[in-house]
Amino acid sequence: MSPKATKTQASVSRDKGEPAATALLEMYYYLCLARAVDERMWALQRSGKAAFVISGQGHEGAQVGAVYALDRALDWLVPFYRSIAAVLMKGMPPAEIFLIQLGKDTDPSSGGRQMPGHYGHARHKILSTSSPVATQCLHAAGIAYAAKVRGTGEVCLTAMGEGATSEGDFHEALNFAGVHRLPVIFVVENNGFAISVPQKKQMAVDNVSARAAGYGMPGVTVDGSHVLEVYAAARQAVARARGGEGPTLLEVKVPRLTAHSSDDRQERYRTAEDLAHARAQDPVHVFAAELRERGVLTPEGEQEIRARIQREVDLGTEIAEAAPLPDPATALRYVYFEPDAER
Amino acid sequence: MADKRFLDAIHDALHEEMARDPSTVILGEDVGRKGGVFGVTDGLYEAFGEARVIDTPLAESCIVGVAIGMSVNGLRPIAEIQFADFIHPAFDQILSEAARMRYRSRNGFECPMVIRTPYGGGVHGALYHSQSIEAFYAHIPGLKVVVPSTPADAKGLLKSAVRDHDPVLYLEHKKMYRSVRGDVSDGDFTVPIGPAAVRRPGRDLSIFAYGLMLHESLGAAELLAREGIEAEVVDVRTLRPLDTKTILESVARTSRALIVHEDNRFGGFGAEIAATIAEEGFRSLDAPPTRLGGPEVPAVPFSAPIEEWFMITADKIAAAARTLVAY
């Protein structure tokens, strides 16, 4: 009855786990697309068209590497507010991100009901998200439990920041997932800051992954500036999950390149050296250099990708700006089930 | 038709729904081999196996949060919180997640799930095994709140809750598990979530109650009848959505309203019924809508005399009714 796991992206050589050139370029495309979409989100906010931005800049390498290891049609994503690259890869085009950003009626995540950054999309198996952090970890465990007992072959990947790991729901979710050996991957995109609070005030350990031992699952820490390092670790985690061996805690160290949000000024609590260091870790630049060195990314190829992204982002912005705002007459709807409504 | 205890009616509903729909699962603390601390899930582990009757870690937010995830991926979870007093760690999952999932995704996702939990005092449970919690949860749009008071309703309403498309909080007064009996039809039937029921007709005042207080109110009506006061007793049954039509029709007949609940009065659920009557039934009234609720202390105290002092009884209800009728 249920769809079985299909194989991961065809362009990935399954022998060595080393992506082929086309796969590398697809990863690079998503890295750059997410960055361009993110920059446009800020431009919309700075020009007074959007009320709020919560950014994923610096996190793209972690998300592209992790989500590339999924079967993007079959598997679930339970995202968080920085998951822009992840939701793009799961099938949401730039226009949808901008519809969300502008609170438009056709925003596929909430129809303009939620603040920007609260991604969700039923058709793409991206669960709707809220603002309290770490609540989604339990939802991911529940989705994975259902996948296991229904035999769907699905894997569930959920993402969060390192601040979320201080919440009780994080602990409760990893504990439940460990007990039941669920097909779920907890990805912690550790950028070193929960808004302004540095990691050393958030936890007494250097790596979140150290906590995995307490839940009977492997904990891995990788460098989010290196997409392929993330991909290799995520691929193992997906294989474990799909093979019935259980969950993985995957910590990805990432730079946070922007303030927490458009309502934050990170210069108040980050030094110039720290910010310069973060910029040097930019996964877009690191991956581009790596691809050039491998001879995969040529100047012409790069130009082509950039031009394509420019077109897509411009078109997406145009579509979103032209879209209608929600009608207050509809704001009472969908508090409860409506028999005649389309879902 | 069979004479059943309140507890058995709930058990039967669970058993029949688990047998009817293979997507249903039960999860909670001690619900498996032990069959629950009150025995409500007795035998279900043996009947349906450990994958569908899940002994969870001792973590209430986990129970509800995991149930939400299950519900969006094709299962129909029936979560048990061992005592309503312990549900508070799950408040965020209920309020921010389950109840908002449909609204916040504009119908993209839904959480068809039930959260069952025993509430209420009178069993020497003291501050942390006696609480009434309905007011916190009835306030939440997106959530339904059901409080059955008869075995037949317990079965029929639970079946409706399991089949509902939205999250339902199903409150079971623990003192009723083994003390309340009643006729329950054999086989499959449902009682719709929403409508209240007039349990005893009367002309002099209306008493609105739910759960254990419905039984105390019926007892009060017996006492009052001996004095020539005819009380109409309305079983509210569903707190959200609230059947304001039945409530207002009853007040139109009797012109007096007494609302009874075990929870303390301040900000309690009775205020919602009283305000509805005042706003929409004002012209029917011969006296102010009146609430009888638990005392303004944090919760039910333990020792017998102070527990009895807290609990609302037929005598206390009858006394309040006499005052109201004499107004």
TrEMBL record, chain A:
Cofactor: thiamine diphosphate
Purpose: The branched-chain alpha-keto dehydrogenase complex catalyzes the overall conversion of alpha-keto acids to acyl-CoA and CO(2). It contains multiple copies of three enzymatic components: branched-chain alpha-keto acid decarboxylase (E1), lipoamide acyltransferase (E2) and lipoamide dehydrogenase (E3).
Protein name, UniProt field: 2-oxoisovalerate dehydrogenase subunit alpha
Transmembrane segments: none
Keyword Oxidoreductase recorded: yes
EC numbers: 1.2.4.4
Classification via InterPro entries: Alpha-ketoacid_DH_E1_comp, DH_E1, THDP-binding
Single biological process term from Gene Ontology: branched-chain amino acid catabolic process
Dehydrogenase E1 component domain ranges (all copies): 33-328
Keyword terms, alphabetized: Oxidoreductase, Thiamine pyrophosphate
Enzyme's top EC category: oxidoreductase
Catalytic activity: N(6)-[(R)-lipoyl]-L-lysyl-[protein] + 3-methyl-2-oxobutanoate + H(+) = N(6)-[(R)-S(8)-2-methylpropanoyldihydrolipoyl]-L-lysyl-[protein] + CO2
Family, similarity comment: Belongs to the BCKDHA family.
Keyword Oxidoreductase found: yes
GO molecular function, a single term: branched-chain 2-oxo acid dehydrogenase activity
A Pfam family of this chain: E1_dh
UniProtKB/TrEMBL annotation, chain B:
UniProt keyword annotations, A-Z: Oxidoreductase, Thiamine pyrophosphate
Coiled-coil regions listed: none
Database matches in SMART domains: Transket_pyr (SM00861)
GO terms for MF: oxidoreductase activity
Superkingdom of the organism of origin: Bacteria
Keyword Oxidoreductase (UniProt): yes
Cofactor (UniProt): thiamine diphosphate
Domain called Transketolase-like pyrimidine-binding: residue spans: 4-179
Keyword Oxidoreductase found: yes
Protein name: Alpha-ketoacid dehydrogenase subunit beta
Species this protein is from: Candidatus Segetimicrobium genomatis
